[in-house]
Amino acid sequence: MKRASVDRTATLAAREYAPYIEATWGLKNHWYPAFFSSEIPADGIKAVTIAGHDIAVRRVHGKLYALRDKCAHRGARFSQEPLCFNDETISCWYHGYTYGLADGVLKTILASPDDPLIGKLRIRTYPIEERGGMIFIFVGDEDYQPRPSLESDLPPRMTDNPSFPYLLDEDVFSRGIHRPVNSNWRLGMENGNDPTHILIHRKSFYVVMSGTKLPLGFIPSAPEAGQFLELPDGQKGVWGVNGEVYKPVMQNQYLGISTPKPVAGPRIDEYRISSWLPCDLLVEGFPAPGWVTIEWYVPIDDVRHEFWQIALRLCRDEHERAAATEFYETVALPIGFTEFSHIDVVARERLQEHYRYPERFGQENFFAGDLAIVAWRKLAARFNRGIQEPPNS
Amino acid sequence: MKRASVDRTATLAAREYAPYIEATWGLKNHWYPAFFSSEIPADGIKAVTIAGHDIAVRRVHGKLYALRDKCAHRGARFSQEPLCFNDETISCWYHGYTYGLADGVLKTILASPDDPLIGKLRIRTYPIEERGGMIFIFVGDEDYQPRPSLESDLPPRMTDNPSFPYLLDEDVFSRGIHRPVNSNWRLGMENGNDPTHILIHRKSFYVVMSGTKLPLGFIPSAPEAGQFLELPDGQKGVWGVNGEVYKPVMQNQYLGISTPKPVAGPRIDEYRISSWLPCDLLVEGFPAPGWVTIEWYVPIDDVRHEFWQIALRLCRDEHERAAATEFYETVALPIGFTEFSHIDVVARERLQEHYRYPERFGQENFFAGDLAIVAWRKLAARFNRGIQEPPNS
Amino acid sequence: MKRASVDRTATLAAREYAPYIEATWGLKNHWYPAFFSSEIPADGIKAVTIAGHDIAVRRVHGKLYALRDKCAHRGARFSQEPLCFNDETISCWYHGYTYGLADGVLKTILASPDDPLIGKLRIRTYPIEERGGMIFIFVGDEDYQPRPSLESDLPPRMTDNPSFPYLLDEDVFSRGIHRPVNSNWRLGMENGNDPTHILIHRKSFYVVMSGTKLPLGFIPSAPEAGQFLELPDGQKGVWGVNGEVYKPVMQNQYLGISTPKPVAGPRIDEYRISSWLPCDLLVEGFPAPGWVTIEWYVPIDDVRHEFWQIALRLCRDEHERAAATEFYETVALPIGFTEFSHIDVVARERLQEHYRYPERFGQENFFAGDLAIVAWRKLAARFNRGIQEPPNS
């Protein structure tokens, strides 16, 4: 009889995605969401930590700059007390070391205008892009070349979905939230694209009140279930729930449970879920038909991730936009992202105690329904652009 | 002049109980109290951690089952959200892995009824017994054989004490409490059986108001003081305060302190204290003549123990039982277990900072009165059934 | 272009003060302030931790005694529950081990008056002196000989300053405060003697309301700026801001900032600051002309220091003393030590996250204004009487 502690099969499987097991601090050399545009006002300064990188962002006359949030003098953080004497620089609050926003080069020292360090010392900068109402930062090695497109790290346009709203299109309604979750980022990713985790949602207000009939779970039903999705713009993904490659399980004879089929109300197998590098989830049909939700599980450090959710909808006129706003504010945000998704947040945080030991990734006793998770791990191991080292190492 | 830091004598003595010094996580392959019977209602599920083992307990139709509180799939704890579809199994709330209560074998997976893992994977179970209003679990190696009797890990029946109430007898009144204490379990044990720690109780309400005249301490007065007690049912113990083998010290000339003798009121040397493997203390005569108190200092982890106290009294009819209840609720619980024993709790927690370094067990400068502690350590080193390894090691 | 992470120059410079980099727990074999005299009442007992040494201090009939705050029996702290049976000893609350205050020798055990340990076991004592309204303890190796004078570890009398009040003189007004700060002690020292940190004070109530015109900073203007001060009584120091060896910087052309000169109101370059072993700062002219402030940044452990400030003033009669009291209570304490100095406290605590890694001391990108810090480091590396080892090592 097999005991969890002597799981040789799992160990063998884990070899196929070994780099993923090391990715406690995330994947590097990818684009990550950092802020909503509205979070950095004109001439505002804010700080963010992504995959262990502490980054200060300043907006000047609409343009954004991102620099390492640490003075090269004695390690003070600019964001501890933002100080800017002009539009081209950021200064340290402690001794006035002043760096160029665009290049990170030391431009002057307040009390030592002729100092030999000037023009020679610099701190690193980060590529930053503002698109679709969001601010993205390219995090990883400073000298990584060539720099991939932002599009390559976003979920792709699903051309076979006629109502698909693509984040970067002009006429797309986009609203969302983000908040920190006390679990490693991988527990977020592996919750979102997990075709059988729906068990935890069965009693949610969203599911019960919408009349959604959840099956017991989904298991693969076609070879495509575990295959890599490689898109022309460079996006790399795998399927989560997708009615064409996963089939719903409606009964369990041993437990005497069966779910009536065909179901009334929305059918969850009409949703379509896919996961994409570096940490994106695309849910077509959530929180309602015609909508798309994108989630990101952005690594903050080894034990926390920033959980992003945006709801997208194609709006061809102001009338549709007003209706989308109404739906977002009364349903998508309070019931979808808050009530429903909080159950996922709890699940991730519950698993963190177990997964704080990195080797636990790879020691699971997976079953058929876990194919999506295994496929995701292999994808991440195969197509990541680097494994983020811990800071200060 | 001898400095504490160069204590060669203590180091030599410590060799005699070396295994005890390693027992940070407790002794394994022993029975430990886990709950009072009343704490697990019909069909209830509760979790407990003993010596680093996380254990889920479920009661079904009066019968109790104990299993490892961790799903073999991905490490979720059953107790985080108890889920049972029938009377024979426990299911994981995350993906519905369903295990037999009696054998821990995977019986089904909710969304994969034909999965090859079924019948092959299992989690460990623990022997569990409900006796005398309490629930005990045998904690240690799963394959430990033969399994010792529960009686061998309880304080024995003291046949030379005519009013002795034995925990497992039918006509015994038994009531008690338990609560976590922030110290290693050994600091509990070594406080309870310490014949000179009574100094800390001299100003307690219980001592002052009862007119108890405490001596300054007790020191050994007969060879039996340090000898092992080996009982026919397998119990192993040593004496703490026992008037036949320890004598009270009534004065200290250097300090000009003397205690009048014979004393008025209850005499503490009429108490009789003994300590027993794995972590039990037996106090005959506390909190009043005719009563017995049993304490356990059950290891939770390396820095906490669960402190148990039960008060026992022989009751031959309902009248005696009503009187015992009255005494327990008005004296034993509020004054004995709460006011008086809280002083011991504080002492143990104060010493934890020092003893967090394991080698500190064995570096003491012991005096004559510490014989009971040294004897206990040697007993534990000699008769334990194994030293508990840390979890996840 | 030079990146902070490949700072070879800094690494080379760091070799010149390598012992300082190791001094996480402070310098040993020096005198440190422990209490104000008023903090230990007649027959009072208090505990203090200096450089990892836990010390109990008892006053008996005006005389002070300092002993290790840990019983040699089982590690209990005397200060957890002070217990003294007479004027010559301190006893442990747990089992009554009783030590001589003067020599630390075990005089008796409460319950074992004839114990062989008596007269043989001892705990260490610490030299203690009460001078100028303060209590100082000599912390370090017990056998360090010859013991240096207290004066050698205090800031010296500045004989070229006619209004200079020396702490140990009879007619000196002295009042002050102390409180713990959550940073390593070196961040306190390197804040106090830093000639360019005044940037952080520019908006303080003290600076603004007093009409003080701060320059942008100070940079060295004479060779004495970085030289060691070696005084006849053994004091070792270096200059911080001193108008004769540092010059104010009044403008920065790159930033378009200039400070009008000559300035109105108090001129900060009329202050004179010097730093002294082991962790003392002397500020002549603060918080007002005719006053002197002494600060100490006493190591508590590796991540905290006790921040001391005393204000001194020469008072030749009761009238002057009353005026000094009035000024201390209405200006020096609430505005100088509280409002103004709190800005320094915040700066030190902000830098702690960076400097928790010891090697960060020595990896800075220093500029001209940092000469005082570098000189201090070299002084400490050259003249310390030992680097304090961590406790329990």
What does this structure look like?
Three copies of one chain form a homotrimer. Chain A has helices at residues 8-14, 18-21, 185-192, 205-210, 318-355, 371-383; strands at 2-3, 30-36, 45-50, 53-60, 63-68, 89-91, 97-100, 106-109, 121-122, 125-126, 128-131, 134-139, 172-181, 217-220, 229-230, 236-242, 246-249, 251-252, 257-258, 272-276, 280-284, 292-299, 305-314. Chain A is of the alpha+beta class and 393 residues long. The first copy, chain A, folds into two domains: 42-129, N-terminal domain of TfIIb; 154-383, Alpha-Beta Complex (Naphthalene 1,2-dioxygenase Alpha Subunit, Chain A, domain 1). The radius of gyration of chain A is 23 Å and the shape is globular. Chains in contact: A-B, A-C, B-C. The A-B interface holds A 1-4, 194, 196-197, 199-200, 215-219, 249, 251-257, 347, 350-351, 353-355, 357, 360, 364-369 and B 70, 72-77, 80, 85-86, 93-98, 105, 107-113, 115, 117, 120-124, 392.
CATH superfamily of the largest domain in chain A: Naphthalene 1,2-dioxygenase Alpha Subunit, Chain A, domain 1
What is the fold-level CATH name, i.e. the topology of the largest domain in chain A?
Naphthalene 1,2-dioxygenase Alpha Subunit, Chain A, domain 1
Runs of chain A with pLDDT <50, length 5+? 1-8
**Can you summarize the main beta sheet of chain A?**
7 strands, antiparallel
Number of helices in the DSSP assignment of chain A: 6
Examine the secondary-structure arrangement and name the CATH architecture of the largest domain in chain A: Alpha-Beta Complex
The figure for the number of domains of chain A is 2
Which CATH class of the largest domain in chain A? Alpha Beta
Biggest interface, CB < 8 A? A-B, 36 and 32 residues
Structural class of chain A: alpha+beta
The geometry of chain A reads as: globular
